[in-house]
Amino acid sequence: MNCFLKSYVECSLWRYDEMELWLLEIGTAFIRFLLNPLLYWFILITLFASLSRIKRERNQFGRRIFPIYDEWYNQRLKGLISGVLISIVMLLLGIGLHPLMLVGIIIFSILFTLNKRFSWLSSAYTYGFTAIALLFYPYYQAYLPSLLDQELTQLDWIIFTTLMGVFLVIEGLMISAVSQDQTFPELREGSRGKIIGQHRVKKITLIPLFLLWPVGSLSLVSNWWPILEWDEFPYGLIIFPILIGFDFTVAGALPTKAAKRYSEFPILLGFLIIAMSLLSYYVEVLSLVTVVVAIVGREWIAYRFKQKDKHLPPIFAPLTNGLRVLAVLPSTPAVELGIEAGDLIKRVNGRSVSTTREYYEALQNNRAFCKLEIVDERGEVRFAQRAFYQGEHHELGVIFVKSQAERMID
User: Fewer Cβ in 10 A, N or C end of the chain?
Assistant: First the structure.
């Protein structure tokens, strides 16, 4: 009986010590997360991209359309959920990323966003160019600190390229989820020298990954992880921020429809990369082939979409019969009226409109009420009406592309 009590007390003390170690290591993981330069770069580059976009909006439309940090809007929760799900799978399998790979991801994520664009934040590029840099590992191995000077195994490459495919799938799902109020209107010169409208589909998110780290105070008394034998040495935990983004323009179609078509290809490419990565367990050379396919495939997707959109007639161009809506300001009467980008406003308060001047004059005819005749993307006519209240936006909050003649008058 005394032996049983002694064993019970010793076991309880061991569990208490282990729990204390785990709590301490989790706290240390958060500190490591706060010390990661990629976290602060994410905050800064999103801020700079927002300020640059707001400056362009004011230059082109005379006002700010979307608030600061809107490039991250509606992506916070998605990034967190994605990170938690991937982290759970990786921790259950007992796998992590090689420290040198993490350093490469930090370096290329920063380099590829110096221009305040997010088009190179696809994992195909950040992971792909990290892999290319690691091919020259023997040439700079001697200059690395001991933490980074570790052998790169085939298993490291399989984990790395598989994650590259997973994040490509996540990128595609992010693109497909873009809604009407999440794309940014712009003006540019068309092929015939006329000013036309386009939408920039540009988003960024931070995906926090909970990873095993070969430095720490945790250890196991038995090996239960199916892939790596972490019981041979102490390990720790880190929270590593992965940046995923996309950035492309649409002029020949409605931005949300174009985004959904665009999203199919990164998703398919991601599943192909995952399959090739797993097959590289049996054929090692496939690891390098997987990286090349990811980079070339992602670049081909972007080029194909750009060329296809270039040859489509611009949808946001001045018309002779009606006004095409380029964008709607958030929290304005136009939102309550159900007006969306791509809608064609034919009549305002019973008057036909084809210029912004006619539109504003028709609105002023009745300062207390407005009635609009709208043709949607399917060609269906609908009527929207609403009372005006004191202090509300006098132009309803609708953005149009002005004709060349109107721009010269302004």
Answer: N
The beta-strand segments (E) located in 31-138 are: none
Enter the tokens of residue 120. Answer: 């190179």
For 201-260, what is the HEC assignment?
Answer: EEEEEEEEEEEEEEEEEECCCCCCCCCCCHHHCCEEEEEEEEEEEEEEEECCCCHHHHHH
Residue 293 phi/psi, 5-degree rounding, is -60, -40
- 173-197 in b/e form (b: 16+ CB < 10 A) is ebbbbbeebbbbbbbeeeeeeebbb
Q: Report pLDDT digits (tens) over 56-97.
A: 999 999 889 999 999 998 888 889 999 999 999 988 887 888
Residue 354, number of CB atoms within 10 A of its CB = 16
Spatial distance between the Cα atoms of 401 and 59, rounded to a whole number of angstroms? 14
- 218/238 Cα distance (integer angstroms): 12
- Total Cβ atoms within 10 A of residue 330: 13
pTM (predicted TM-score): 0.88
Residue 397's nearest CA partner among 311, 342, 327 is 327
Rounded Cα distance between 200 and 182, Å, is 9
Higher pLDDT, 408 or 183: 183
Topology (CATH) of 323-409: Pdz3 Domain (2.30.42)
Q: Is the pLDDT of residue 389 over 90?
A: no
- Minimal CA–CA distance to 166: which of 134, 131, 133, 209? 209
Bigger pLDDT: 276 vs 407? 276
Q: Report CA-CA distances (Å) from 373 to 108, 203, 257, 323, 341.
A: 50, 33, 23, 11, 15
Q: Which two tokens stand for residue 11?
A: 């076991």
Tally: H helices and E strands in the chain: 12, 9
- Cα dihedral 35, 38, 43, 48 sign: positive
Which sequence spans correspond to the domains of the chain? Answer: 1-35, 36-310, 323-409
Nearest Cα neighbor of 244 from 165, 151, 325, 188 is 165
pLDDT tens digits for range 104-142: 999 999 999 999 999 999 999 999 999 999 988 877 777
Check if the beta carbon of residue 110 is closer than 8 Å to that of residue 44: no
Q: Locate 255 and state its tokens.
A: 């931005």
* CA-closest candidate to residue 214, choices 145, 136, 129, 280: 145
